[in-house]
Amino acid sequence: METRIKIALTKGRVEEQTLPIFTQAGIDITAVINKKRKLIFDLPNDPYTIILAKGPDVSTYLSKGAIDIGIVGSDILTEQQSQEYELLDLGIGQCQFVLASTKDFDPQAVKRKVIGTKYPNITQAYFSKRGEDVEVVKLEGSVELAPLIGMADAIVDITETGTTLKENHLKVYDYLQTVSTRVVVNKMALKQHRELIFDFIDRLAAQTKNNKGVTLK
Ligand SMILES: Nc1ncnc2c1ncn2[C@@H]1O[C@H](COP(=O)(O)OP(=O)(O)OP(=O)(O)O)[C@@H](O)[C@H]1O
Ligand SMILES: O=P(O)(O)OC[C@H]1O[C@H](OP(=O)(O)OP(=O)(O)O)[C@H](O)[C@@H]1O
């Protein structure tokens, strides 16, 4: 039976920006582009199976060894404290983590701040580093609502163009870290399918701006 590597691709923004890179790399992903509700695709001309999943699940599948390669944002890898090998930064899905709130927010005035976020671990780590004890409230989306409806003093979220913050009259109070899309490999899979995996990484790396993969020791 033909050996295939299982590549989980994060649905949504990451998928939209990654598929053109696949095409440029000569990988036929017509079936993925024309998908309806299908989630798994055995590509016709390459030994790759593409699996479409939500970002946090891509990271979970990777850590459980259910897939060989994950294409996922560094926001999720950091949040989930992923231990897998990051082989390539695709240079897409670029955004930044910020601390934001309403314009009248005074960081010194609130004793124990309530912070709304989709990223509780990153938020806790940020405030711990500053020696500040905060209450972190986990939200699932539209995080910008939290300070507007009086549910949180501030938020930790990602921003790209700044449009969402601006349209909701929120201001950036600090920059935490930058985010981009990474290609991550399960350690066991790398032992089993080293050649196939490095060939795949090289094909993508040749199309990315910085044009280099990460060399393993
Ligand atoms: N505004 C943004 N600009 C650039 N990249 C972003 C932005 N928001 C998220 N990302 C990156 O894209 C990944 C997936 O984001 P996307 O918005 O497609 O999914 P999501 O946040 O889970 O939304 P949904 O729940 O609507 O699917 C994030 O993990 C992050 O790495
Ligand atoms: O700076 P901008 O370009 O406006 O992008 C920032 C927005 O994008 C993300 O939300 P997303 O669209 O993923 O929706 P969500 O709120 O449901 O997570 C993020 O959480 C911000 O809300």
TrEMBL record:
A single GO cellular-component term from the record reads: cytoplasm
Domain (ATP phosphoribosyltransferase catalytic) spans 56-205
Q: One Pfam family name from the record?
A: HisG
Q: Which UniProt keywords apply?
A: Amino-acid biosynthesis, ATP-binding, Cytoplasm, Glycosyltransferase, Histidine biosynthesis, Nucleotide-binding, Transferase
State the pathway, as annotated in the record.
Amino-acid biosynthesis; L-histidine biosynthesis; L-histidine from 5-phospho-alpha-D-ribose 1-diphosphate: step 1/9
Note the InterPro entries from the entry: ATP_PRibTrfase_cat (IPR013820), ATP_PRibTrfase_CS (IPR018198), ATP_PRibTrfase_HisG (IPR001348), ATP_PRibTrfase_HisG_short (IPR024893)
Task: Tell me the Gene Ontology biological-process terms attached to this UniProt entry.
Answer: L-histidine biosynthetic process
Q: Which Gene3D superfamilies match?
A: Periplasmic binding protein-like II
The reaction(s) catalysed by this protein are:
1-(5-phospho-beta-D-ribosyl)-ATP + diphosphate = 5-phospho-alpha-D-ribose 1-diphosphate + ATP
Which compartments does it reside in? Cytoplasm
Any one GO MF term held by the record is: ATP binding
The EC designation for this entry is 2.4.2.17
Q: What is its main location?
A: cytoplasm
EC top class, in one word? transferase
**Record function comment:** Catalyzes the condensation of ATP and 5-phosphoribose 1-diphosphate to form N'-(5'-phosphoribosyl)-ATP (PR-ATP). Has a crucial role in the pathway because the rate of histidine biosynthesis seems to be controlled primarily by regulation of HisG enzymatic activity.
Q: Which family does it belong to?
A: Belongs to the ATP phosphoribosyltransferase family. Short subfamily.
Q: How does it assemble?
A: Heteromultimer composed of HisG and HisZ subunits.
Quoted from the entry, the domain comment is: Lacks the C-terminal regulatory region which is replaced by HisZ.
Protein name, as recorded: ATP phosphoribosyltransferase
Species of origin: Paucilactobacillus hokkaidonensis JCM 18461
Gene encoding this polypeptide? Answer: hisG
